[in-house]
Design brief:
heterodimer; A: mainly alpha; ABC transporter involved in vitamin B12 uptake, BtuC; 15 helices; B: alpha/beta; Rossmann fold; 2 domains; 6-stranded mixed β-sheet; 19 helices; 36% helix; globular
């Protein structure tokens, strides 16, 4: 049996979840439940595509790292623009976070579909240029990785974004749990009034880490289109991106608000997401009907619900959501 | 005695909240290395005054001097800079952090090296005799441990002036004794300490000097060695004020409610009510006096069917049939369905009494929504009733269709009282019904209660102003730390005697006050009041 494509694909999918999940963790640690993450994933993807196309259109032989850099920059600009609307509404105006987030998810989906289908794809050579960039730049891996046997083919054969995601997750964990800034941020998410009383600038912290969260979550979209799909934009791209966004939000609960655990969590989700396509490899001799495969697609959601139930039963406070999650903070409200 | 160094001085501090003057030209001094007790009744402005020193509020007039220098304290951070630390009644701690993480939180200019911080916390703890594990998370801690974290947090930042807001209210006697020994050690270390309290025995046991506030005014201070309980009580409650509240003799009194040996423990296992027995009679107003948190809330909620209790019974005697109904383990709806005409005006008006976002009619409707068989609500009758309440109680509102929360506090209370009285209760319980109301509205409420009394309702009135209790009620039951310390005749009791019953607690005395002299004094006085005024 050849497990290599399955395991390789698992990692490719996992990194999409990882970006979305780490982004949402920063939001939630600052006390904001952002249901707009799916929207941010969408526009982040649109930004990545836009940046890539911009550079490739200018000069198809542009050095790879420049294209990569501009694509990521545009992804950050796009996702922070949408995230900024969310932050402004929920931090400064203290709007209901759920309603604002849901509205942005719907908006992000439509906006992305509009930008990709109306502006970028109709351009001459657009799909060709994007697919070249996807294969040659985003999926460019170490040239000798293929020769390193099983380990090399599964772990070292990925594009830049995969390793970047891993580094972001690890650095995020260090930031959150090993530094004073992280301590302050967690205090803001747990009890902003207490944080305020000891002199932590609550509003500033919320804005900074909302923007950081948006930037990281936006990379999920770029990773999906340019890395996983090799720059090929399918008809249902924005719907696919939104689905990844929702699963990322669920993954936050699954990983107990810890970025380092989210590496493991996204690998599991990535495996569950991709496994139905490899059902014949995993269960040789068993034939799945179309419906059977569709049912297998439900597994990530079921797992999330089970984890939610388990953490509720355990009931220990350090596996729960930040205490002030979803509650707007207003200093004079006490 | 050598001239003492002044550590903190307040000069003519005034603070107003709207029209209410919380502190009026208060001037006081705190000396280096002394323990000062700040004594006063509920609402006398103790906490407000201290909040201005710790940066929560900013004074409207007057200024604060530290070590002779005038300072401006605008935020808790400013207070830290001037080495002032306040330990609030409600702890400001992050539950999921460890003790050390909470202590270091927001502390600038120190590296986040948790091992070193743990060491430093341990060192401070051992210096003052605290018992704490810096790695323990706050949600695993007892109340006393949380308090310890708060105190160490202040000490860690180098506080020289420590303010403790009712630190013993949540502690067991053993924990209190431990806290006192820590406070004495801090004093020996040269720190100045202010303790806000209204427990007289503790004042005498721990402090060097006592400062007294009454209704926002600074009454004066005495050296503790020259003070005794009667003196302090007198300074605290002040002269009797004539209120001219109309009071009829109770007529045709009949037992309506009988509470026997009631004991209540809260979720944390703390005894809130301890073996309380009393009866309420029709046609009289029974007052309940006590310091805030003496168990008034739990007692009323137990009667109303909102609070579980393990021991004792609550019996309602039906006025027509004289049948005795046991209300134990019944919820409010079951109680109503049993035909018990009980109305309850809770302390928390917008939390328990009314729904803030609903309009007046809907709030009135809440008492009768399940009436009738139609699946649609009957809004006609409640609307008429609401209009009647608004008119009779002179509620200032532009319409009966505005959300209740947009009304002023007094008007909200009138809606609530009006609704409860409209149900023509046989037993009416009110908790602090005039809190936050102006004089006219207060008298209107007293009138309403008196009318209910005339109608033959048994009225229970939980109050905080002793003058009102004495002038309005027929009998007064006094609660102290959940115990009934006496049921007295309101017509003959003196204010000071009431004050003494409120602070009396035999258990407390044995454990926290080593002074034999004080113990003797208190007992002597208690015997007098008990013998003379038992109803």
């Amino acid at each position: 049996m050849d497990y290599i494509p399955l395991l390789f694909g698992t990692i490719e999918v996992a990194v999409i979840f990882l970006f979305g999940c780490v982004g949402e963790i920063f939001y939630e640690k600052s006390g904001h439940l952002n249901l707009g993450i799916p929207g941010i994933v969408c526009v982040g993807g649109a930004g990545g595509v836009f940046g890539t196309f911009l550079m490739m259109n200018l000069n198809p032989d542009m050095p790879g790292f420049v294209v990569l850099l501009v694509a990521m920059l545009m992804s950050v600009v796009f996702s922070c623009a949408l995230g900024g609307i969310y932050s402004f509404l929920t931090i400064t105006f203290r709007c209901n976070q759920n309603v604002t987030g849901l509205a942005l998810s719907i908006f992000g989906n439509g906006f992305t579909s509009f930008v990709l289908n109306q502006f970028i794809l109709p351009r001459e050579n657009a799909s060709t240029l994007l697919s070249i960039a996807g294969q040659k730049i985003f999926c460019a891996s170490l040239p000798f990785a293929k020769d390193l046997g099983f380990f090399g083919q599964v772990f070292l054969n990925h594009g830049f974004l995969v390793y970047f995601g891993l580094v972001v997750a690890i650095l995020s964990s260090i930031l959150l749990f090993r530094t004073k800034i992280g301590l302050n941020l967690r205090a803001v998410g747990e009890d902003p009034a207490t944080a305020d009383a000891v002199g932590i600038p609550v509003i500033k912290y919320k804005y900074i880490f909302n923007f950081l969260g948006a930037a990281i979550a936006g990379f999920a979209g770029t990773a999906y289109i340019m890395n996983y799909m090799n720059g090929i934009i399918g008809a249902s791209v924005s719907a696919d991106l939104e689905a990844f966004g929702w699963l990322s939000v669920a993954l936050v609960i699954f990983t107990l608000w810890r970025p380092h655990l989210s590496i493991l969590g996204s690998l599991i989700f990535g495996f569950l997401y991709i496994a139905p396509s490899y059902a014949s490899v995993l269960f040789p001799g068993v034939t799945f009907t179309f419906y059977g495969k569709e049912l297998l697609n439900l597994i990530p959601y079921v797992v999330t619900i089970v984890v939610l139930i388990i953490t509720s039963i355990v009931g220990k406070k350090n596996v729960q959501a930040p205490a002030a999650l979803g509650k707007p903070y207003f200093r004079e409200d006490r | 005695m050598p001239e003492r160094e002044v550590s903190l001085e307040l000069v003519s501090i005034t603070k107003r909240f709207g029209q209410v003057v919380a502190n009026n030209k208060v001037s006081m001094k705190l000396y280096k290395g002394e323990i000062l007790s700040l004594l006063g009744e509920n609402g006398s402005g103790k906490t407000t005054l201290m909040n201005m020193i710790s940066g929560i509020y900013f004074p409207d007039e007057g200024h604060i001097k530290i070590d002779g220098q005038e300072v401006v304290i605008r935020s808790p951070l400013d207070a830290f800079k001037h080495k002032i630390g306040m330990i609030h009644q409600h702890f400001k701690l992050i539950d999921v952090f460890t003790a050390a993480q909470n202590i270091i939180l927001g502390n600038k200019g120190e590296k986040y090296q948790i091992k070193k911080i743990n060491e430093k916390v341990r060192e401070i703890a051992s210096r003052y005799g605290f018992d704490i594990d810096p790695k323990k998370k706050v949600f695993d801690m007892s109340v006393s441990e949380k308090q310890t974290v708060e105190i160490i947090k202040a000490l860690y930042r180098g506080a020289n002036i420590l303010i403790l807001d009712e630190p013993t209210a949540v502690l067991t006697p053993q924990e209190t004794e431990k806290l006192f020994s820590v406070i004495r050690k801090m004093k020996a270390d040269g720190k100045s300490i202010i303790i806000i309290t209204h427990k007289l025995n503790e004042v005498l046991a721990i402090s060097d000097r006592v400062a007294i506030l009454r209704k926002g005014e600074y009454i004066g201070d005495v050296e503790t060695k020259n003070a005794d309980i009667p003196l302090l009580t007198e300074m605290m409650v002040g002269e009797k004020v004539e209120l001219n509240i109309h009071r009829e003799e109770p007529k045709k009194t009949k037992e309506r409610l009988r509470v026997t040996h009631l004991s209540i423990k809260d979720i944390n296992g703390i005894q809130k009510i301890k073996d309380v027995s009393f009866s309420a009679y029709s046609g009289e107003i029974l007052g309940i006096a006590g310091i805030a948190g003496a168990g008034q809330k739990e007692l009323l909620e137990a009667i109303a069917g909102l609070q579980h209790y393990e021991k004792g019974s609550v019996i309602y005697i039906d006025p027509k049939t004289e049948k005795e109904e046991n209300l134990k383990e019944k919820n409010p709806r079951q109680i109503r369905e049993m035909g018990v005409r009980l109305s309850f005006v809770p302390e928390d008006r917008l939390g328990m009494g009314l729904v803030g976002n609903m309009n007046l009619v809907d709030n009135v409707l809440l008492r009768s929504y399940e009436k009738g068989r139609s699946p649609f609500l009957d809004k006609h009758n409640p609307k008429e009733l609401t209009n009647k309440i608004v008119e009779e109680l002179q509620i200032a509102t532009e319409s009966v269709n505005v959300p209740v929360r947009t009304l002023s506090g007094g008007n909200v209370q009138k809606v609530l009282v009006g609704r409860e009285i409209a149900a023509s209760p046989k037993l009416l319980m009110t908790a602090y019904p005039v809190r936050g109301l102006d004089i006219n509205s207060s008298y209107l409420i007293y009138d309403l209660l008196n009318k209910q009394k005339e109608k033959g309702t048994a009225v229970i009135f939980v109050g905080e102003d002793l003058d009102v209790l004495i002038a309005l009620c027929d009998r007064i039951m006094v609660l102290s730390s959940g115990e009934c310390t006496g049921i007295v005749d309101a017509r003959s009791i003196k204010k000071e005697e009431l004050g003494m019953l409120m602070v009396k607690s035999n258990d407390d005395l044995k454990n926290t006050a080593p002074h034999v002299l004080v113990d003797g004094l208190l007992n002597q006085n208690n015997e007098e009041t008990e013998a003379g005024y038992e109803y």
